[in-house]
Amino acid sequence: MATHIDYGPHAPSLITFAFTLLAFASPASDWWSALVPPWYAPFALWALVIVAIRLGARRTARHEV
Questions:
Q1: How many domains does the chain have?
Q2: How far apart are CA 37 and CA 24, in angstroms?
Q3: Are 58 and 10 in contact (CB under 8 A)?
Q4: CA distance linking residue 46 with residue 51, whole number of Å
Q5: Is 18 within a domain?
Q6: Closest of 47, 42, 50 to residue 23, by C-alpha
Q7: Is residue 15 part of a domain?
Q8: 3-class state of residue 2 by DSSP
Q9: Rounded distance, CA 65 to CA 63, Å?
Q10: Looking at residue 44, what is its pLDDT?
Q11: Is the pLDDT confidence value at 57 over 70?
């Protein structure tokens, strides 16, 4: 039987923050922008961040009383 490990209500927020920081404010952003991505690439990354925030908020709502 598999056990469910609950990392707390703030884990998705921290993971999303780390991903956003890595994608937009690190040397990695220079690397992926040097690849000449399509014009919509930054918008697609922001859309992923917004979806991750929404999923994290939905997960956090279960912990509220």
A1: 1
A2: 14
A3: no
A4: 9
A5: no
A6: 42
A7: no
A8: coil
A9: 6
A10: 92
A11: yes
**Angle subtended at Cα 7 by Cα 6 and Cα 11, rounded to the nearest 5 degrees:** 135
Q: Give the CA radius of gyration of the chain.
A: 15
Note if the pTM is more than 0.85: no
The tokens describing 11, both together, are 């884990």
Each residue's pLDDT tens digit, 15-32: 888 888 888 888 888 887
Average pLDDT over residues 1-7: 66
Residue 42 lies in domain: 38-65
Indicate the residue type of 46: W
Higher pLDDT, 58 or 42: 42
Residue carrying structure tokens 């707390």: 8
pLDDT of residue 62: 59
